[in-house]
# Entry
Amino acid sequence: MSENVQNAKVEVAGGYNPEVVTLKQGVPATITFTRTSDQGCLDVVHSKDFDFETELPLNEAKTVTVNTDQAGEFNFSCGMDMFFGKVVIK
# Structure
């Protein structure tokens, strides 16, 4: 992670790995999701907190931008809200 941009990587396979992503406040950030299993309802990831929803094709990395202006804990989940992850901004 450089001082100018942060990128977290999350593997999507029967859940999110890691489930918790920690980012530094005020530093531009992205999260790259890669779905490696076709199990379950994990073909979509969305976040009301960050206002995104994106499809996750199998074995294809998809990157979303997250706003790090505010410290706190923010959620993301699968399309059916059965699997959850969290972004912690410090």
